[in-house]
Design goal:
single chain, mainly alpha, 434 Repressor (Amino-terminal Domain), 2 domains
Length: 143
């Protein structure tokens, strides 16, 4: 017996959604190779200038399937102190010299952290957390 759904595609959106499914069916991701293939489809859709409603729904569903697989099978370690500091600098749009002037942290210490030669000290973490407006736990992940 057919089931009536409140959410249905019609016209072009229906056709594009079904075309996506025919190209790469929406099923549970079962291996790293399957994940890589799904990511290629996601990348292709994200590169498109404009998606219709059917393609957007398909992309959302496929993204959820890949996220479920990654949550269970892909370990992502904490970011290094250098990567975290570099990200915060980029996000705020400040230079290493500006960070030095505004926090009082020495240029050499900042350079060593960014080069991966030195970890963030507790004192640096406190100053940086205050400067960037983040919780200290964001920077203390590697202590």
């Amino acid at each position: 017996m057919p089931v009536a759904y409140a959410f249905r595609f019609q016209g072009k959106a229906r056709d594009s959604y079904l075309n996506c499914i025919l190209e790469f069916p929406l099923t549970t991701i079962v291996s790293d190779a399957h994940l890589a293939a799904a990511q290629k489809v996601i990348d292709r859709l994200l590169a498109a200038r404009k998606l219709d409603r059917g393609q957007e729904a398909y992309l959302d569903a496929l993204s959820n399937l890949t996220a479920s697989y990654e949550d269970e099978h892909v370990q992502i370690g904490p970011a290094s102190d250098a990567d975290m500091l570099r990200h915060l600098l980029d996000a705020k749009g400040v230079t290493q010299a500006e960070l030095h002037r505004e926090t009082g942290i020495s240029k050499s210490s900042l350079s060593e952290v960014l080069a991966g030669k030195k970890p963030l000290s507790r004192q640096m973490i406190r100053r940086l957390a205050e400067y960037f407006g983040v919780d200290v736990s964001v920077l203390a992940g590697n202590l």
